[in-house]
Amino acid sequence: MKANYESILHVNLNLLESNFKFFKKKLDDKTKIIAVVKAFAYGHGDIRICKKLEKLNVSYFWVADFEEAVRVRRNNISTPIIVANPGYKNYNLFVKYDLEPLIFNFKSLNYFNQNEIINCHIKFNTGMNRFGFDTDQKEKIIKYLNQNKNINVKTICSHLADSTNKSFTKNQINNFDFICNFFTKNYNRKIERHLFNSKAIINFKNKYELVRLGIGLYGASSDKGLCQISTMTSIISQIKKINKGEFVGYGLNFCSEENIRIGIVPFGYADGIYTKKNNDDYYVYINRKKHKIIGDISMDSLIIDLEDSKVEIGEKVILFDSKHSIEKVAKSNNSSAYEILSKLNRRIRRKYYS
């Protein structure tokens, strides 16, 4: 029996390809692409996104943890997979599934130095102060790597803190170059480098062998030339008339100042809606007209003011699309496109178009 879903994330794979080609044009022909597909491919569904990007010949996939990596590999994805937070428990399965850990401390370096030769990637901190070896550890790392041949370093990388801040980013680039030059002179094997993310590719000229494409692939950006690849829709499940002075929703946080007509939408904070409390700046759209969300958002539903529109049960509700972008929604809720997309629940149906 074919299921008819009410809340659907519509994903346009042609637009994904268009965004990929947008970045390719900004890079040298030899530059390799690492596609970031962590957090369920930023909410879009990792398997279908990976299969599309694999056809576009990305060089690596980048995931957050071991579980994400295994899920991708078990779905017949053969492209190398970098695991950003590999942990310390699954060495044999890293070998079995041919996964490549990102190593950022000596505990991890020692853990993956076991019986098999394992491909890995070394991360340095250049100013973000999150994951990564510090610069003054470079000599010790080189000595360790040259003495332990089971650790095969394929790339060296770092993470930009804010690629829209040009002065800070230039300092990070300089720090990264200093580390890379030391590796080139002292490490016995050839390695490749990556530092730039989507925004950095737009703001700077890349000079490294690889780049990491994340949010830009999905078009959740105000940059011209990029297209948002997804549209989030639901429906009106119920319509009710509310009298002046009546309350709507949990917490009694909305009291109607006049007689109104409301619509209930089966999409709530468990699905990834962006705020639980009543928000004066948050709207959804029906037939090109915006309707304000009223009252506290429930786990599985939200309520909108239908005003004087002739909306009926079953009509489509747009939570975001190319005209009412994720960036605009994020701005109205003091959030970010990253947060909105990554919180979209997997129970939402993903529907793909080519």
Features:
25% strand, elongated, single chain, 28% helix, alpha/beta
Topology:
Layout: E1 8-12, H1 13-25, E2 32-36, H2 38-42, H3 46-55, E3 60-65, H4 66-73, E4 81-85, H5 91-96, E5 99-103, H6 106-111, E6 118-123, H7 138-147, E7 151-157, H8 166-186, E8 192-194, H9 198-203, E9 210-213, E10 230-235, E11 238-242, E12 260-265, E13 283-286, E14 289-294, E15 302-305, E16 316-320, H10 326-332, H11 337-342, E17 349-353
Parallel strand pairs: 1-17, 2-3, 2-9, 3-4, 4-5, 5-6, 6-7, 7-8
Antiparallel strand pairs: 1-10, 10-16, 11-12, 12-15, 13-14, 14-15
Spatial ordering of strands, largest sheet: 8-7-6-5-4-3-2-9
Shape: elongated
Instruction: Indicate the structural class.
Output: alpha/beta
Profile the largest sheet.
8 strands, parallel
Low-confidence stretches: none
Order of helices and strands: EHEHHEHEHEHEHEHEHEEEEEEEEHHE
Overall mean confidence score, pLDDT: 93
Backbone CA Rg: 24 Å
**Could you give the distance between the termini?**
24 Å
With helices defined by DSSP (H or I, 4 residues minimum), what is the helix count?
Answer: 11
User: How many strand elements?
Assistant: 17
Helical amount: 25-40%
Work out the strand percent: 15-25%
